[in-house]
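This part of the workshop introduces the protein records we will be handling. A record pairs a protein's sequence with a compact description of its fold. Comparing a sequence with its tokens is the quickest way to learn the format. The record below serves as our worked example for the rest of this section:
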Amino acid sequence: MATKNKKKRFAAFINGRWVKEGSQGTFENINPADTRDVVGVFPACGPEEVAEAVAAAKEAYESWRLVPAPKRAEIIRNAANLLIKHKERIAQQMTREMGKILDETRGDVQEGIDTGFYASGEGRRLFGDTVPCELPNKFGMSVRMPIGVCGMITPWNFPLAIPTWKIFPALVCGNTVVFKPATDTPATAVELVEILLEAGLPPKCINLVTGSGSSVGNAIVDHPDVRVISFTGSTEIGCKINERAGAKLKRVSLELGGKNAQIVMDDADMELALEGVLWGAFGTTGQRCTATSRLILHKKIHDKFVEKLIERAKKIRIGNGLDPKTQMGPLVSKAQRENVKRYVEIGVNEDKAELVLGGKELTQGPYAHGWFFEPTIFVNVKPKMRIAQEEIFGPVLAVLRAKDLDDAIRILNDTPYGLSSSIYTRDVNAAFKAMRDIEAGITYINGPTIGAEVQLPFGGVKGTGNGHREASHTVLDIFTEWKSIYVDYSGKLQRAQIDVQAG
């Protein structure tokens, strides 16, 4: 049954105040498991609101950058504690907003909590270097400096975790923020901003501007006073952002698409590998940049493994993510389901690829009012087929056959992307060879391609990004500039890089 609810009005947060009216009107946020359920109505903002938000963030930066980093970090730690307090409520709303099951939305909030505690610890580090100088009575060091206003453009699949990856360290570093969430998940963004304000963040340090990418996202990217752009989303959009922002010499951090693969060798623990690919391919309904989109099986175990995989995938319980029995929720929107459907049709029409499970929308009975799709598996897939090369972002798995380890690694590397990767093997030599030769930012040994920890760098190579890494201490390189400082206490002119031995 649909949730009986009056359409709740939400607000953007701009220049220290909540704003319910947007210059572009309003838009509705719909529950993808039951489209009769309107989560809320949000202001559709545009360039006017972005200009006001950037001006407020720029003003706030002048005082915020002077707050000692440990004090800034205390506010982020407060926010993490508030996320603990409100974890279940936020998870429930997130499931209603974007569809993934409660276990996953609780994990999403937990990742925000972990990021908060980790980022707050950096407030007492933010390490630089002290080094010996080549001249007497001279001291040299490097320090991290904040940059200014940061524009954060975030996706819908991790509507709390990914914004915290960006916003928490940026604030600890002394920057201020203009935050544009995905139009499919603005309610979770409102929750995060409310928590930051309750935690003690000065209001103008965070600005939430809701609306479309064309109206809000482009305005943030183009605004001359936004010094940093951090974007997570598709490679196509990321390239456009990079071009626009790069022309203005902005700092740009891009975390983009993936076509992640799991290798299963003939000596692997088959049950463990099976559990890994089921979670990797169909967790979050395949809507992760780290989702297992390809399964590369050693030829000796291919047929038996596929048989077991189909048997297990048939049993996945699909439904509303708020139901504790559900194992896989809906796709986030009609457009996303249409895209998945289009790729299934591409796969069916590709030479010799065989659809062995799923491939259809679910539109009857309990699925009549949601964007549901069956777990889908193709076999006999060849490396150059489109379903083995292009990101689908849905519950579609392409199975490929490999002759040996070298062949498996070659197949894995043969895509435009390089985010996450996985190999199941009991052979330590094979594991180390895979760690060395796989072209990816993340490699798992005997684990699925999904599931990051905040203390390790997150990001990829090739078409997956532009070299920056989120999470870990490496995220500080996105949100700080290096300054080298020399102190000469000799009392006389000393000339570095001059050959004083020449005369």
